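Students often ask what a 'structure token' actually looks like in practice. Rather than answer in the abstract, let us consider Outer membrane protein beta-barrel domain-containing protein, a protein of 198 residues. Its sequence is given first.
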Amino acid sequence: MKLIVLNFVFFLTLFTCFSSFGQLEQGTFVINERFDFHTTTTKNKGSNYENKQTNFSTTTSFGYLFKENQEVGISLVYGRNKISSQDNGFGNDATIQDYGFGIYYKRYINIVDKLSFFVSPQLGYLSTQYSGSEYNGNQIGANIYTGILYHPTKKIGLSMNLVGAGINYSYRKQSMLQNNSFSLSNFGGLNLALQFMF
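Now compare that with the structural description of the same chain:
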């Protein structure tokens, strides 16, 4: 909760420091870049077990405002998750890589000068590959996100995803085994991105 409040204060401070610009005009090209990096370490007291995960992902989107406040585009996704486990002197390492792409539509609703709310339905595909294993997976999905977009300058924007929902179908295969699954999900959490307009 503190993170949400701090992010809100950050965006509110930026909002009050700059003058008005008209950013969401027809004919504008948009490049949006989102990075995510985090590490997690788990240790069990009373045993020698330790698990460390390092996650990195990036999503690059290329969009075009075909009408005022309406954007269409494509997204490219890359993710890497390195897992390292130690248990009583025995180690196990694995690397998981994700590659994906998608198409999206984004509708902006101006709240005040330089601050907009957006809704973005998306269709996407994701391929997952595991190092040292025949295990791989594929996923197709339809998701919808909501968020806010703030423009500190005419050519730069900061966006934040707020809440989303999705329908996903996954197909996973390992040697002679295969698994199909279908899921409905909703998700929340703040996800910041940097946007360039030209």
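One point worth highlighting: The CA atoms of residues 142 and 181 lie 14 Å apart. Ask yourself how you might have guessed this from the sequence alone, and why that guess would often be unreliable.
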